[in-house]
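Justification of resources, computational component.

The compute hours requested in this renewal are based largely on the per-chain cost of generating structure records like the one below. Each record pairs the submitted sequence with a full structure-token output. That output is archived, and it is also reused by downstream analysis tasks.
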Amino acid sequence: MSINKKTASYDLVVVGGGLSGVCAAIAAAREGVKVAIVQNRSVFGGTASSETRLHIVGANCHSSKANLRETGILEEILLENKRRNTYAAFPVFDMILWEKIYMEENITAYLNTNMHDVILESGEIRAIVGHQNTTETEFVIYGKIFVDATGHGTLGVAAGAAFRTGSEASSEFNEPTAPKEANQDMMGNTIMFLATDRGEPVSFEKPVWANTYTEDDLKLRPHLDEIGAQADGGGIVAPEEGKNQLPEFSNVDAGYWWIELGGDYDDIIGQSEEIRDDLLKCVYGVWDHLKNQGNHGVENYDLEWVGMVPGYRESRRLEGEYLLNENDVRANRVFEDAVAYGGWPMDVHVPGGIKDLKSVGSRIYNFEGCYTIPYRSYYSRNVSNLMMAGRNISATKMAFSSSRVMGTCAVGGQAVGTAAALALKYGCTPRSVGKEHIHELQQKLLKNDCFIPGFVNEDEEDLARHAVVSASSETENGKAQNVINGISRSVGDETNCWISGSLETPQMLTLKLPQANTVCQVRLTFDTDLSHEIQPSMIRNVRDRQVKGLPHELVKTYCVRLMLDGAVVAAKEISKNGQRLNILNFDDIRCDEVQITVKATHGCNEARIFEVRVY
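The structure output for this chain reads:
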């Protein structure tokens, strides 16, 4: 029973506060949309939060695929975390996510609020009903468009949206590695732990309720503190496709991805409490094995934290107008309505998890490059005002096994939030955005530093596209002209970046406009080394291969001057930049030239700028 009852109305209601929901809410709010984000936990971030502490992986596959790290709002969040959270403490990362939501104009957040009902009218969602535990308040939250970012597809299912579970038969989409017969097998849940070296021996007494594991039991589960490769626990994915791989990387300090259960339970959602309890028996049983059975090199290690919120891999997937499938992934398909991309391998864990100790836990199907995800996979095929973001998007099980990771979910969330804003702007359905406004959607995403493989800046309002570009210096593979070629990251052998000579003296980039124009904004996209990771992680090996602080390539100190007939008419000095995308606003200044002078970076001895836009 709720003691208090309140009603509120918004343009967009996002249910779920993981990274996909966070990015969707922020993207829409920045387009002027009044947004509610409803999160049933006390923190944002989902499995990336301090409650679960999984690191954010995506298309760059732990730095094994060059220049494929996700940008946009996710990059903004991670760079802010790198700047302010040097040692990547997860509770501090929680604060940065909280701040991004609460400091964003147009967003109202409902934390600790569990959606338990949906109000429908003529097949559309009119409102959700949720209970906020902390205030004992029942909220009825009305909206025009709703986004299901719950992971489970909970909102969609409650609204009658079509959905799928388990694996499709290979014949349905002609998927080469799908099972011959459809089944309900799923990937399970994992609880992580954190262990700390105390510098002296620490004993451990096994709880009476914990499982017991022998060395023979765990012979196919790497559990020594070694350096090498692993699937989604951290490390570079194994290179040989389609075989049961034995991951060579293990991380005694930060838990094991293979402590996994639930994929073969009757109901992975309905039995989630039971699954968590069973996982605790596994975690403490594995720790007992490490501490008390043989020499595992952990005499001085002590358990500092064990999660109580498992990380889900799989449950339901909502059906959109198109189901992304394995053939799209393998072919690196570029869809005409592409709005996001993925590149993580198809990583299919055995449903039995740690109960199936005769397997190595995951079958990994690698592929080169990346694929795009069509906009049609982000809205419901039968509930007209419902969109989805995160692991519950429209995909087959095989494609889902790649698209489910958090980096891919986050950029999809930004696409969904941006599309929802367009639907509200034009008074149309999300489906109509894809039919009538897809080019505008794609160009907005590119403008806001999202990457859509195969698409370039075609913004007719960008004055820089027709400018004459020159520089005080440039390298052979980093011509000044690259800043207006429409691509804001390196792709293949093309750097797509202005790279100056030595920064022993300041380096200048100049854009001469075709004629004098009124300028209100200059947007700069700097290099942040998209080939390497910057996410928080409990895993020592993942942390150690990251630079400390911000990427060295990132421009730190620079000046932008607007010129008219050779005279400075406006200028902005930036001295402590920590972001890849910089947006500088001016008061409608008439000018015919833009000068950008780079004075210092965070460690690199050359200026590196991918894109300049002028509006």
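The domain at 463-614 is CATH 2.60.120.260 (Jelly Rolls). DSSP finds twelve helices and 26 strands in the chain.
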